[in-house]
Amino acid sequence: MKASKSLLACLLVIVCIAGSCKDKTEYPIETIIENGTYIGEITGVANPPFTNPPLPGTAWGFQSEDGMEYVLSYDSQWYWGDEDLVIEGVEYSLGDEVEITGTVSMVQLDESISYNQLEIETIAKKSN
Helix, strand, coil: what percent of the chain each, to 5? Predict the structure, then answer.
């Protein structure tokens, strides 16, 4: 009986140690999807929820011709909705048709929340 209790205690310790050694994922995780040129329009997107509850507000965004929506960033910085969107001396407005060369990534904030980001390398207004 003592041997089986000792074995059970040892197994319990092993299970507890194994459970506490699980890989702890650190967020946010940014995964680069692709580099390319994208055509679409400047939009506002809801603030990705970094806090719980999420803070209200918007960031400048981009909707590509295929309907994908991205948070825009330039020099690794977002432009919040209450800021002017001015890049290299050119001001952009909601609805402006643009061509952007840049890097698309998916940013995961936790196990269930993620958003797409487009890091601008070059941006130009499309002539209508």
Answer: 15, 50, 35
Count other C-beta atoms under 10 Å from residue 101's C-beta: 14
For residue 89, give both structure tokens: 């001396």
DSSP-derived letter for residue 128 is -
Residue 128, CB-side half-sphere exposure with 13 Å CA sphere: 5
For the chain, domains (ranges, CATH) are 29-125 (2.40.50)
pTM of the model: 0.75
Cα 83 to Cα 72: distance, rounded to the nearest angstrom: 13
- The Cα 89–Cα 73 span in angstroms is 16
Model confidence pLDDT, tens digit, residues 19-75: 555 568 888 889 999 999 999 999 998 876 665 555 667 889 999 999 999 999 999
Q: What is the dihedral of CA 95, 97, 44, 103, to 10 degrees?
A: 180
- Rounded to whole angstroms, the Cα distance separating 67 from 5 reads 62
User: How far is the CA of 100 from the CAs of 19, 21, 31, 64, in angstroms?
Assistant: 46, 44, 19, 10
